[in-house]
């Protein structure tokens, strides 16, 4: 195989790494997600292009051309083809490995594998690997919150009048009450970028996502909230609107970061 072919990147997918939109499996906020990849948390963010070289090795190309990556992702989501070839002038880093788990491979290439870092590649840094989600922990908790946000209707349908809500005005020592107090504290002391994010839901409502040490919250501004805890493996705790939740969600949406239109 020619050296040029070995150096080519066969793009499999791409994701955004910005304060308002980043792979939450990596961390609770944008600066921490950047730190996991050895990147500076610039406000403009990055695009992460995941692919294989001609030998099948995994590589992650970090580019400053966020709009280009965003357009490609939008096209792919619509079932359209879109070529994504980052300009060398916009490339910030080429990192060995993938930070996310992918179940796909480039056709005609060997199975994806970690690159061998020899010679000039020895300074490429540690090989990226996806966070361990085999057991319940922060990464799996955040993935669970992602799933609820994505499949809100299905999760909401499981909550009916017979389900006992954890009210936002419950006992102070209750873990979910503690989480809500921590969320409320974000209003007085803004957390690191990315801890509170807002995305379009339907009509005038928004989907809110808040994360913190050991917990994740997913809510609709016109509805209820769900809480996931590191200390409660696999449990999803519903929070009824009660007297406090509507006001809290409205206030959080006011300071939440939103993806660029």
From TrEMBL:
This is Integral membrane protein. It comes from Streptomyces qinglanensis.
């Amino acid at each position: 195989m020619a050296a040029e072919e070995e150096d080519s990147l066969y793009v499999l997918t791409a994701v955004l790494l910005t304060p308002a939109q980043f792979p939450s499996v990596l961390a609770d906020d944008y600066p921490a997600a950047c730190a996991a990849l050895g990147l500076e948390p610039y406000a403009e963010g990055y695009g992460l292009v995941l692919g294989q070289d001609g030998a099948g090795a995994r590589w992650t190309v970090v580019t400053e051309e966020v709009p280009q990556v965003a357009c490609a992702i939008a096209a792919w989501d619509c079932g359209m083809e879109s070529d994504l070839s980052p300009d060398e002038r916009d490339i910030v880093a080429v990192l060995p490995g993938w930070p996310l788990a992918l179940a796909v491979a480039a056709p005609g290439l060997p199975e994806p594998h970690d690159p061998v870092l020899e010679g000039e590649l020895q300074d490429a840094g540690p090989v990226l690997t996806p966070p361990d989600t085999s057991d319940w922990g922060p990464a799996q908790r955040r993935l669970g919150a992602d799933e609820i946000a994505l499949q809100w209707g299905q999760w909401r349908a499981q909550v009916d009048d017979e389900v006992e809500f954890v009210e936002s005005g419950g006992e102070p020592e209750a873990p979910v009450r503690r989480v809500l107090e921590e969320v409320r504290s974000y209003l007085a002391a803004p957390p690191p970028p990315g801890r509170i994010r807002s995305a379009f839901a339907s009509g005038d409502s928004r989907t809110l996502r808040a994360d913190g040490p050991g917990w994740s919250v997913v809510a609709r501004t016109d509805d209820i909230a769900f809480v996931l805890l590191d200390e409660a493996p696999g449990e999803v705790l519903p929070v009824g609107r009660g007297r406090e939740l509507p006001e809290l969600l409205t206030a959080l949406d006011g300071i939440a970061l939103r993806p660029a239109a």
